[in-house]
Design brief:
This protein has about 425 residues and is of the alpha+beta class. The protein has 13 helices and 16 strands. It binds zinc ion. The site of zinc ion has 5 residues, from loops.
Length: about 425
Amino acid sequence: MNQITNLAEEVIARCRELATFSEDSGSIRRTFLSPPMRDVHREIAHWLEPLGVQVQVDAAGNLRALYPAEDTSLPRLLIGSHLDTVPNAGAFDGILGVVLAVALLQGLRGRKLPYVIEIVGFSEEEGVRFGVPFIGSRALVGRLDEKLMSTQDAHGISVRRAIEEFGLNPREIAQSAVQDDVCGYLEFHIEQGPVLEKLGLPLGVVEAIAGQSRLEFTFVGHANHAGTTPMNLRFDAVTGAAEWITLVERFAKETPGLVATVGSVQTMPGAVNVIAQEARLSLDVRHANDDVRLRAVDEMIHHAQEIAHRRGLSVHYRTHMNQQAVPMSPFLSEQIEEAVRKAGCEPHRMVSGAGHDAMILAERVPSAMIFLRTPGGISHDPAESVAVNDVAKAIECGLYLLEQLASETTFQRRTCRA
Ligand SMILES: [Zn+2]
């Protein structure tokens, strides 16, 4: 037990240490294949080598570390998360999942299992440098295509060139893809939200990653003088939009599991003494069930049209994104639940409202996620933190899980989907 607490303290110290490798002085920023990523790779390799683990960096810049099995012909379980960060980041988003995987190997104390464990530290998940997320995990499922390789950052450097400049060979990208010997992917990640804290629980079992719709709505009325136009003779785009926003909120509150956000509002001409002619709004809708989400979006479109019609306005909309929900592996989620119980915690099943590498890996490999309670629900901020006891529970749960999977021969025999 004491050993687990020591490991947990070490995990936190190591996350804080990796946080010092940053592109910015005084705050954390580590984007795709930026120079500090090399320091992170070196440091993690330094921790892993004494455990008999070979560390490599694949052509997409992902750290790949193999902990051998009892036998060379055995399948492979991936455990990982991402090593890149947003600007002004915290020390735990992503990184914790990789450092915790290292702690699990330490916790095995040299014991070999009937499967290889491969730790993966993804090179890119946040989409900061190229505006496209999941570059690292896309390489593992064979989806780092030509278009993405040619995408340029703000300095005109393409993904391909960034890979070359880091000393890697973009022609070897295909070799980063997972092979048929992979039987699963596990990801530990901070929740980045307030739910587990509110429930007083250290760990959550992610059942699915929510599907997402993003739209843009424009309400159009007539601009006019704010002083001379009586209230009953106005065609105010902003008040129409405002009525719709409150309706979106009410609708989401009344639909279990639905979250809907109008995060951006722009008005035209946007002057204090002019009735707005135009209001342009964003809408983000998420749910674990795609039918519920799509019905909600239809409903919101219908309400926007009804409000516009009643107020003598017009409204039009554009759909920017419709991303399907991704269920996690029911088998692995059940195994995690059991392991969480063995660690003395009540497992809480939940949906991840944010995208994660597990969402991409799930395209080819049975995937699962374990959330750790996030103090204050604070993430993507320097104040992001995690409690030692919660990390200890995660390590305990992880070790039970590895043990359970060691006796699940059917699981080990599964191969990933082609
Ligand atoms: Zn993350």
